[in-house]
Amino acid sequence: METDATAAPEPTGTEDHGWRHDAACLSEDPELFFPEGESDRYQPQVSAALEVCGSCAVAEDCLRYALEADQRTGIWGGTTAQMRHDLELVGGRVRTIGAPTSAEVAVHSVAS
Predict the structure, then answer these.
(1) φ and ψ at residue 45, rounded to 5 degrees
(2) What is the pLDDT of residue 62?
(3) Are 92 and 70 in contact, with CB atoms under 8 Å apart?
(4) Bridge-partner residues for 76, per DSSP?
(5) Which residues lie below 8 Å from residue 41, measured CB to CB, with a gap of 6+?
(6) Integer distance in angstroms from the first to the last C-alpha of the chain?
(7) Per-residue model confidence as pLDDT tens digits over 27-47
(8) CA–CA distance, 52 with 17 (Å, rounded to integer)
(9) Highest averaged pLDDT of the listed ranges 6-15, 16-25, 71-80
(10) Taking a C-beta distance cutoff of 8 angstroms, is the pair 49, 75 a contact?
(11) How many Cβ atoms from other residues are within 10 Å of residue 41's Cβ?
(12) What is the mean pLDDT of the chain?
């Protein structure tokens, strides 16, 4: 059985993924959130995806899901795969946050 790597997995067990119905990305092309990389070449796509996340009411839930599910690709909860990796290196705990601000994204882009 083939699966769509760009689609969020269906909930299993007692997990509550009802937040997905309120996600700002529902009206966007899923491919926007899965750039082929994070280098300068892909920054317009990454920035566009992060902009959608910046207006999302459930970005925090999405990020929490991505960290718990160990999503290693794509834009989730206003973070790139590298940003999530960096969060995990900082201690594996996520403080209450929303999508990163444009200033935080810019700082991260310069540091990468």
Answers:
(1) -70, -45
(2) 94
(3) no
(4) 79
(5) none
(6) 37
(7) 999 999 999 999 999 999 999
(8) 19
(9) 71-80
(10) yes
(11) 10
(12) 78
Torsion angle of C-alpha atoms 61, 78, 26, 9, degrees rounded to 10: -60
pLDDT category at 86 given cuts 50, 70, 90 is confident
DSSP H or E stretch at residue 84: helix 81-89
pTM, full prediction: 0.67
Q: Where are the domains of the chain?
A: 20-111
Residues 6+ apart with CB under 8 A from 73: 5, 34, 81
d(CA 43, CA 39): 7
| CA 49/CA 2 separation, integer angstroms | 25
Residue position matching structure tokens 């290196």: 89
- At 60, the pLDDT band (50, 70, 90 cuts) reads very high
